[in-house]
Amino acid sequence: MKTRIAFGCIAMMFVLALPTNAGGKEQIQSYFSNAAGKVKATNNPAEKRAILNESIQTMSNALNKVESSGLISQEDRAGILQFKKNLQEKQDELAGTNGYLRVSDDQLNAFSDYVVQDMEQADLVISISLVALILIIILIVLMIK
Amino acid sequence: MRGTHIRSFKGAPYSMLFASVRSAALIVLLSSCSPNLPVQRAAQQADVLAPQYSIVCVIHGDNDYLYHDTSGHEYNADEEVLEGTKRIAQQNPQADVFIFHQMPRRHFLFFFPLHDGEFYYYRNGLLIASESYWRDQGRSRFGSEVELYRRFCADNQREMVNLFLYYGHEIPEIDGAHYDASYPDRTFTVHDLADGLKGFTHDSLKFDLLVLSTCFGGTPNTIGTLGPFARTIIASPDNLHLSYFDLQSLERLDLNLRDGNVPAFAKRFAHQAFNRLTGDIQTAVSVAVYDVDRVQEYIRSVDDMYNDTLAGLKGRTRASPAAIEHCDCAELPAYVLPSITNGVDIFYRPARFGRSKHKQNHSGWECWRDKGLQGTNSRTTESNLK
Predict the structure, then answer these.
(1) Is the pLDDT of residue B18 over 70?
(2) Nearest-CA distance from B161 to chain A in Å?
(3) Which of B5, B159, B213, B380 could pair with B167 in a Cys bridge, judged by C-beta atoms 3.0 to 4.6 Å apart?
(4) pTM to 2 decimals?
């Protein structure tokens, strides 16, 4: 039993070490950068659109789960709400809904860069605490697998 | 046996002499391998040319500075700027360059704290000194940096063209906690930067050019607070991507700034930075040049109004970040005054996507507003600008 607990603790340390060292934000940025890489790797506009939409939706789902978990503070809740709103705007523009003109097929690579760069420079993620970020990252990892 | 002993005893002075010669040769050999020697040579050569340019660069690296290029390669913005400033230091044969890299708190073997600052001093293109230091944890945010600067700065400071560069995240106008990831309770605001500038300028000298490579640097409050310490300021009123303002214009100041016309140089710097950013960046790009004397009238006109807004924001920024946002001052009717364009040169391109992609102009001044007011104010401003 003690051995199991010890192994469990070590495994948890490894899981938490990466996001903690990086402040948690880097994993979220890398997540969108990887998605942009996949968008550029395919020539099919429908696939590009699907990759972008799925990556944004997965992040939104993770944010919803963390928001409803009851483990986060009021400040985190406000930060997550803002983050979700930002992602919704991206999805709307991608699909051409809610007053947006649909992103054209030949603009999808540029749009994927826009998503990455907007995440990197916005203070959206900065207003979310490390604990909430770690929860988001763990959920993203679980959802992708 | 005895004879041998006597012979060896007689030979002792010779042995000692040989040992001394060997030791001296070893010392010379080792010292020629030591990293200090080039610095000593550099110091001797550096005395030959009196520097005409002084560049002080503070690079903040104690937070998340990761960004990706369009190929997906990862970069740390602070490390990229550090390499860039070292390069400009080496390529300026008539400059004093002081580089301060503010780094995250680290530990050796989990317990032993390591220095959280690095300092490099170049003169005439050669590295004169480099050392690690502790960032000031007292009241003064830049105490350690100012102390190092004063130790090495030249006597003829007043005859030189003085430049100050700050590369980092948006400097808060209020509150200012969480700026350093390692010291989240420690606050940093534009007033702290102003105090630092006061230390660097010996209370009287002004920097000829201050480059503020941060997001949202072009607010009436920020320019007004830093204005007493600079004649010309370059800043980004809108968001600024972490690839920052390009440093290339600062290479070979003896050629690029030969005429000593700093305001004209500032416009060339801003234009070059703008061109470089718009090449790769899909988000908004804005680079503004402020003639500090000429913008005073506008800053004074909106000062009370802006301070009232800041007072209202206190405590709100972290509790309800979704409720407020930055915006072009020209989108708020009360800020659209005849003097709004005085002394400001702005290079602007809107984001290629998003709600603001059709915004064609930027006043060069950034303000705050409640998010709910976005639609009505945008329409009002368009009619005002027309």
Answers:
(1) no
(2) 32
(3) B213
(4) 0.83
